[in-house]
Design brief:
Order of helices and strands: EHEHEHE
Structural class: alpha/beta
Strand order of the largest sheet: 2-1-3-4
Number of strands: 4
Largest sheet: 4 strands, parallel
Shape: globular
Helix content: 25-40%
Amino acid sequence: MTPTTKVLALCGSLRSKSSNKGLLRYAQANAPEGMSIEIADLASIPFYNADITEVPPAVTQLLAQFANADAFILGGPEYNYSISPALKNAIDWASRAPNNALLGGKAAAIMGA
């Protein structure tokens, strides 16, 4: 059995018919053999706030997806000369893990439509 590289794809646009989300779905459907791409749902992720003492279930699921991933695809529109708030927020949640364990040492690609 061939090992599978698990890729987590995050879209900075929350619209279901977003061109960037469509691009990620295309990548998912056309992933090469030995690669699986899972697209995270960022629509219900609350803004990161250090005062939140109980991590919401949607965030717990997202963090598990980050932990399971070998690599990431970040897809999204340019937003005010930067990345979109939804994508930045997801990265903020993941970057709070001790020693940056959810992000550190993993490959990432950036793409946009």
